[in-house]
Design goal:
Length: 65
């Protein structure tokens, strides 16, 4: 389990991206990871992230993530 609760809905990382919760679906790019929805309040857009990437997820629009 993640030690810092990044997978908790509503957690926000140091890049300002907010976790909107699990999609309950496996990641398409990483084995043994669940896909999550991340929200960028700056662009007001939603993006996918792997559970292991939430803490370091960048917005694909304004942060090049
Ligand atoms: Zn953004």
């Amino acid at each position: 389990m993640a030690g810092k609760g990044w997978t908790n809905r509503g957690s926000n990382n140091h890049n300002g991206q907010i976790n909107l919760g699990s999609t309950m679906r496996p990641s398409s790019t990483y084995a043994n990871q669940i896909a999550y929805v991340m929200h960028c309040p700056k662009c007001v857009c939603n993006n996918g992230a792997n559970g292991c990437d939430i803490h370091d997820r960048l917005c694909p629009y304004h942060q090049g993530g």
